[in-house]
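Weekly modeling sync, notes
Attendees: S.R. (lead), two postdocs, one rotation student

Agenda item 3: backlog of single-chain predictions. S.R. asked that every request posted to the team notebook include the full sequence so nobody has to chase files. The rotation student volunteered to paste the first one in as an example of the format we agreed on. Action items at the bottom.

Example entry:
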Amino acid sequence: MNHVWGLFSHPAQEIQSIRRENESVSHHYLHHVLLMAAIPVICAFIGTTQIGWRFGAEHDVRLTFASALALAALFYVLMLAGVALMGRIIWWMARHYLHRPSLGRCCVFAGYVATPLFLSGIVALYPLVWLCALAGAVALLYTGYLLYIGVPAFLTISREEGLSFSSSTLAIGVLVLEILLALTVMLWGYGYRWF
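Predicted structure, as returned to the notebook:
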């Protein structure tokens, strides 16, 4: 958790610090990803059970405690799997580089780069679709920025190569994010009918 503030206040230096550490995937998940991924889950749970989703001028759709709990658990697992998937994608894309990091280090890097997306989940306390979409878009922009400044240092490649690698990774990441968002909307928006 000590890197969270640094990723926002001085991201280039913080990514260098992350790179120098030899953090294991289990340590990273226990001390960062599991906690950060809980933020949008807990906020969405509270927002959907206490306030309810608002879809335009329609009435609020509130979930029951049991259905929100089941959906929150599924949402949590999807986010953890998304971080692991992006780590594997970064590792696979780096296969031709001389200083290819291990799969574990790629998962750690993906977890830190996803930090803005996790923090944007705070707005789910008041679950307005447009507000959640706006916060997600801003978080995605900052995540892209972290990729652009982090990939050259992480892979020890030139900025030009890093730009190409980051663009490809971001495009795949956006696709993964869109799939997760679609599943999230289906789960949180329509899940009350299934549970």
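Discussion: group reviewed the output briefly. The chain is about 75% helix and 0% strand.
Action items: rotation student to repeat for the remaining queue; S.R. to check formatting next week.
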